[in-house]
């Protein structure tokens, strides 16, 4: 019997996880990625449930863990260097049932690429500009995509894993969940922040930070520094910004707002590389994730925002659940797509709600919120309350339960 072909748009976290899983299930898989090579931008991401269990059942956990980091505590420091609050990472590890590590966003991609290996053809420099979602079950109507350079690809299954600014989503006849407008932004719910992240080498700063995460105890913006054992440091910064499309001058102005939050942060700001991750903070709102032979996955369908701390985890878990559902429904696309969406949508919508709830915690808008955060962090350190507080922050994904559980 001829192998079924799957096209996956985007070699990000969701796309690589889906491609590797489908290849293991016997699909002939091709990933089309617009970037010319693996992405190096991004910052440290906390990786826990439901992605942890999903990566385990995919057989990819060891590839990710190889690049995983563990920190002893996070210290919230004010501009004078005084510690205002702290969180023992043991508390968080306990709340997560031990299923937790931190990992650089580029290292998640690296680990997944190693796990995918030669099972999948990854075409770099392949920017999708238009597509036909195909018709199902009509075997003569495959999904088709056209690249910017004019090349065309077709397949029985198309997965749009092309991130929060998804082109696939714009090409599918799907609604924006009741939202108005016609541009690609109609699928995005802006949360009023802008995010920056990068990695740089500074052995002295890395040694000074050691195994502790430094977070700023600041209003309307939040910066953080994590050191890596090889002398690199990763910076992230989230700043309040009501303009969903700031121009270059304004983005530069936003970046300068992290100055003065402390000498170590100032030092990190001076080391900004050309390859920096930068975006507005938003969530995807899509009425239905699938049409014909095509389905959206990861941020393209359900971006939760960095404020939910769950984007990478939900990308891996969504890929595992989608590919498992396809397998269990004998690759009947209509049934599998519908069952997957029915099971997964409530989970990600809960995470989106948690992301919106968390904005005041992550970036306190005023002094009252800052004081409340200090109090909440204190409670999170208390045995017995840590799991409750973590669940309050991250929804029901802690500990493992729900439709993703294999
Ligand atoms: C370079 C980069 C760095 C990031 N760093 C962070 C971070 O530090 N912290 C954080 O919280 N989140 C970060 N994110 C977002 C984070 O990866 C996602 O929120 C989450 O992991 C979900 O992953 P995803 O695979 O759905 O989307 P993404 O990881 O965004 O991957 C989407 C992929 O699709 C590709 N793509 C987009 N459009 C097209 C097209 N038309 N044709 C072909 N390919 C296309 C993109 O180049 C990208 O590789 C980053 C994303 C990128 C792309």
UniProtKB/TrEMBL annotation:
Signal peptide: none annotated. Residues 5-328 form the FAD-binding domain. One of its GO terms (molecular function) is FAD binding. It holds the Pfam family FAD_binding_3. It comes from the Bacteria. PANTHER family: OXIDOREDUCTASE-RELATED, POSSIBLE OXIDOREDUCTASE. This is FAD-dependent oxidoreductase.
């Amino acid at each position: 019997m001829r192998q079924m072909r799957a096209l996956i748009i985007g070699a990000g976290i969701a796309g690589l996880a889906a491609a590797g899983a489908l290849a293991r299930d016997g699909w002939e898989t091709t990933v089309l990625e617009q970037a010319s090579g693996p992405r190096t931008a991004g910052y440290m991401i906390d990786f826990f449930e439901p992605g942890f269990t999903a990566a385990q059942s995919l057989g990819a956990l060891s590839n990710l863990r190889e690049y995983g980091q563990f920190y002893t505590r996070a210290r919230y420091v004010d501009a004078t260097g005084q510690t205002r609050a702290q969180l023992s990472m043991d508390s968080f590890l306990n709340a997560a049932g031990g299923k937790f590590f931190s990992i650089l966003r580029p290292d998640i991609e690296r680990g997944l690429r190693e796990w995918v290996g030669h099972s999948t053809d990854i075409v770099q420099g392949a920017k999708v500009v238009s597509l036909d979602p195909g018709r199902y079950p009509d075997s003569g109507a495959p999904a088709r995509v056209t690249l910017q350079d004019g090349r065309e690809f077709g397949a029985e299954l198309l997965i749009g894993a092309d991130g929060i600014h998804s082109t696939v989503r714009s090409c599918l006849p799907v609604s924006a969940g009741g939202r108005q407008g016609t541009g690609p932004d109609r699928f995005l719910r802006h949360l009023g922040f802008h995010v920056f992240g990068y990695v740089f080498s500074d052995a002295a700063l890395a040694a000074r930070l050691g195994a502790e995460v430094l977070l700023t105890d600041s209003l309307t913006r939040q910066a953080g520094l994590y050191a890596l054992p090889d002398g690199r440091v990763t910076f992230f910064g989230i700043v309040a910004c009501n303009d969903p499309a700031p121009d270059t001058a304004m983005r530069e102005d936003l970046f300068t707002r992290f100055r003065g939050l402390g000498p170590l942060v100032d030092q990190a700001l001076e080391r900004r590389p050309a390859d920096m991750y930068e975006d507005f903070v938003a969530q995807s709102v899509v009425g239905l994730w699938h049409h014909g032979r095509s389905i959206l996955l990861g941020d393209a369908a359900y971006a939760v925002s960095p404020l939910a701390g769950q984007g990478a985890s939900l990308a891996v878990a969504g890929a595992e659940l989608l590919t498992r559902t396809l397998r269990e429904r004998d690759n009947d696309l209509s049934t599998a797509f519908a069952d997957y969406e029915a099971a997964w949508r409530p989970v990600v919508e809960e995470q989106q709600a948690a992301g919106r709830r968390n904005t005041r915690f992550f970036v306190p808008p005023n002094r009252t919120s800052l004081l409340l955060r200090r109090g909440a962090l204190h409670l999170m350190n208390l045995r017995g309350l840590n799991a409750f507080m973590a669940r309050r922050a991250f929804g029901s994904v802690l500990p493992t339960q729900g439709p993703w559980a294999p």
